Amino acid sequence: MEQSKPIKVERVQTGVRMEKRMLKVLKALAELLDLSLGDLLEGIVLHAFEGKVPFGEDAIEQINQLKKIYGMDYDASASHKMIDTDA
Question: What pTM value is reported for the model?
Answer without folding.
Answer: 0.88
